[in-house]
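Fresh eyes needed here. Have a critical look at this protein's tokenised backbone.
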Amino acid sequence: MITLVIYDITDDIVRNKIAKTCKRFGLSRIQKSAFLGDINSSRRKELISKLRRILGKNRGNIQIFVLCRADFALREVIGYEEFNENEEIVLV
């Protein structure tokens, strides 16, 4: 299923570790603090575990949403995608 990870973390080191972890799990950056991708349930559980460890007792907030393809198809994108990082989001 489609996984959306968003976060608000002030510590640069922790924030960068979160971003790198999301990328390693195959998620694509869609905004400065948002990643999106299609991963299965076991990979998502592993991702959540790693993100918990990285955040630890640091101040911040990470939210993970699971979206079905029907709901994802209803999304609206307003404006342009600023963060493609040479990655293409392909969710069919």
User: Anything to note?
Assistant: The longest helix spans residues 41-55. The longest strand covers residues 2-8. Residues 11 and 37 are 24 Å apart (CA to CA).
